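Final report, section 2: Outcomes. Of the targets proposed, BadM/Rrf2 family transcriptional regulator is the one most frequently requested by collaborating groups, and we therefore present its record in full.
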Amino acid sequence: MQLNRFTDLGLRVLLSLQYLPESELSTVENLAKQLNVSRNHLVKIVYFMAQAGWIESFKGRNGGIRLAAGSQQLQLGSIVQALEEASSEITTLINCQQPPCSMTEFCFLPQMFNQAQQAFYASLNQYTLKQLQVPATNQAVIKWLAQ
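The predicted structure is given below as tokens.
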């Protein structure tokens, strides 16, 4: 299984926001620099995550974003599935429409792949976002935060 770019960047944003002190906010611009990606890529993702209630967004001169209360308890499978579905990219593992398949009436591959995809999400649901956080005393984390 391959995750799309929307999901990849969404996970990176959530992981980055975990390292913010509770009283601080980040911005899309700061995250773009920190993650070495385009600000434009992050705007749609941050908007989706704010709508989903995973992050809080504050407008204005001193505005920014941070993890919403309780977000660290979100299950990874649920996060990945929601991000995959919110992406504009195709989320099915097998596409019987392009090119059109002449075996669709008797082929069980789509159902099997869908079942495997659901098992993937279920496996990820054994973990929460908080479980991905490495202690801030880790040297690699310290170096990354100093950027």
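Strands lie at 55-58, 64-67.
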